[in-house]
Write a structure and sequence with these properties.
The protein is of the alpha/beta class. The protein has three domains: about 110 residues, ATPase, nucleotide binding domain (Nucleotidyltransferase, domain 5), CATH 3.30.420; about 180 residues, Nucleotidyltransferase, domain 5 (2-Layer Sandwich), CATH 3.30.420.40; about 200 residues, DHBP synthase (Alpha-Beta Complex), CATH 3.90.870.20. It has 17 helices and 22 strands. The chain has a ten-stranded mixed beta sheet, with helices on both faces. The chain has a five-stranded mixed beta sheet with strand order 3-2-1-4-5, with helices on both faces. A five-stranded mixed beta sheet has the order 8-7-6-11-12, with helices on both faces. Strand 11, helix 10 and strand 12 form a beta-alpha-beta unit. Helix 6 packs across helix 9, helix 7 packs across helix 9 and helix 13 crosses helix 16. The protein starts with a strand and ends with a strand.
Length: about 525
């Protein structure tokens, strides 16, 4: 049985394929289109669909069902799908149902509460479900405009950033602030067990910019109406909305044994950590691609269980679900670009050469295997640096990523050694949460610490990414520390690099010192 999923049509469009009960492909349109014209929002992610079908080794006429997360308005998408997949059953799913399915059916739990939180979709901005076996039952829905995600986006805009794009910057900025404004945002949210009911007297219907906050809000800040936020208050405002949203999510989740989370707010690693450590749940699982792109996975899983009534759960093994490139394909690109390179004959030579570069305080681009699904680099499309280099964070931020110094990097560590250095939950497998550095190692990881002893942790499983795991161990053997700083291999707001040509472009447009693309090694 073959199910094609299409999600995020109105933003962050993606596709996924479930083949005979195995998730074999998933990719976002933006990683393939690379900014090229792909039609207006609301159109099919043609590049992602074609790539997923190719990765799965199937033709359109072999697809049994196309599961699409309903856009608003639906326009003529149903007719387009029927024309392109004439033999397929067309299944249309609601947005938050797809979010919930992506979280629960990908989780390790047989029974759980499922919480979805985002800015909005299908006029909803949240939902809570009870899930058991292969079934989910809706308990409560949260409707726009009483949206945690919308208020978070308003604060993002108030701070001079782009709503729907740069909320992650507010999250990391928040760790430098105090909680002086938390009660103000809780007052605006007016929480109940079922969710917020926003007090709109703090907003202005006439002000469409800077978050749309009104005179009452500015008065509480001690500012003139419409005044730009002073630099010294930015982190405190970020901390206020962050802590208020964490409190709201904890209250909305209730209590129990197992909790699953999806929706755009599931991308907030500090929120996930708060649920792991302060909610009434023993176990928390966040769908690592919990934004709109992840609904493509929810669409195929919901169709598998509900439409085709399959009881067998689909195991969730990896996010390496995008394209990979063989040596001939890589070599063709490098030669076409007139580049000088070395071809390393063995995996051991690749690892040893990378360790030499890292030990020499070089910044290394690392592109191997299938591209990750989602925004986070998990060792297949990464930029790496040694924690032993005291200037690594400065070099990565200023000269390569060109981003704010408060945005720190993840510390990748073999999963079986993680507890030796960090205290962190299971969601560190996909970089979906934050942890704490153990006191005896705090000085070693000072460059990656967000605040206090807080750090982003990436626990690398040997079976899931054997090459990256091997590199971490080799780095540890050489230096005594089996940890590398890891950030995504992309530049200037672009998505992760996908192809060898994308990698070459980013390598030569940045201060990266060396690059490994498969077994090919390039230096500047």
């Amino acid at each position: 049985m073959i199910i094609l999923g299409i999600g995020g049509i109105l933003g962050d469009a993606s596709s996924a394929v479930l083949k005979d009960g195995e998730l074999v492909a998933a990719i976002e349109e933006s990683k393939l289109a690379r900014g090229a014209h792909t039609g207006s929002r609301g159109e099919l992610p043609e590049h992602a669909i074609a790539t997923c079908l190719s990765l799965a080794g199937i033709r359109p006429e072999q697809v049994d069902a196309v599961a699409v997360v309903r856009p608003i308005p639906e326009s003529d998408l149903h007719l387009k799908l029927r024309a392109r997949f004439p033999q397929s059953r067309i299944v249309v799913l609601e947005h938050h149902l797809a979010h919930a399915a992506s979280a629960y059916y990908a989780s390790p739990f047989d029974e759980a509460t499922v919480l979805t939180l985002d800015r909005g979709g299908d006029f909803r901005c949240g939902s809570r479900w009870h899930a058991r076996g292969a079934h989910m039952t809706l308990e409560h829905e949260q409707y726009s405009p009483d949206s945690l995600g919308d208020l978070y986006g308003r604060v993002t805009e108030l701070l001079g950033l782009s709503a729907n794009e740069e909320e992650h910057k507010v999250q990391w900025l928040s760790v430098a602030g105090d909680e002086r404004y938390c009660n103000l945002f809780l007052e605006i949210l007016r929480l109940s067990d079922t969710g917020p009911r926003l007090d709109r007297s703090f907003l202005s219907t006439d002000r469409l910019r800077n978050g749309g906050f009104g005179p009452r809000f500015y008065e509480r800040l001690g500012l003139k109406d419409g005044q730009p936020v002073p630099e010294e208050l930015r982190a405190h405002l970020a901390a206020g909305i962050q802590k208020a949203v964490e409190a709201a999510a904890i209250r909305m989740s209730g209590d129990g044994r197992n909790l699953c989370l999806a929706g755009g707010l599931g991308l907030n690693a500090l929120l996930v950590s708060a649920l792991e450590n302060r909610s009434g749940y023993q176990n928390v699982f966040v769908q690592p691609v919990s934004g709109n792109a992840g609904t493509a996975i929810g669409a195929v899983l919901e169709t598998w269980h509900t439409v085709y009534r399959q009881e067998r759960r689909v195991p969730f093994h990896t996010l390496a679900l995008g394209p990979a490139y063989n040596a001939a394909e890589i070599k063709q690109v490098l030669e076409n670009c007139k580049l000088r390179f070395r071809y390393l004959l063995t995996t051991e030579e690749v690892v040893d050469t990378a360790v030499e570069q890292l030990h020499d305080s070089k910044i290394v681009a690392w592109m191997h295997g299938r591209m990750e699904f989602g925004a986070r680099a998990l060792g297949n499309r990464s930029i790496l640096a040694s924690p032993l280099d005291p200037y690594s964070t400065e070099n990565l931020n200023l000269f390569i990523k060109h981003r704010e110094p408060f945005r720190k990097f993840a510390a990748s560590v073999p999963a079986e050694l993680c507890a030796e250095y960090f205290e962190v939950g299971a969601n560190a497998r996909y970089l979906s949460t934050v942890g704490r550095v153990r006191p005896e190692h705090r000085d070693r990881f000072a460059a990656a610490i967000l605040a206090g002893d807080m750090v982003r942790v990436h626990a690398v499983d040997r079976d899931e990414n054997p090459l990256y795991w091997k590199l971490l161990h080799a780095a540890g053997k050489a230096s005594g520390l089996p940890v590398l700083y890891n950030t995504s291999f992309n530049l200037f707001g672009e998505p992760l690099v996908c192809t060898p040509r994308d990698a070459v472009r980013s390598f030569y447009s940045s201060g990266i010192d060396a690059m490994f693309v498969g077994n090919f090694f390039l230096q500047k």
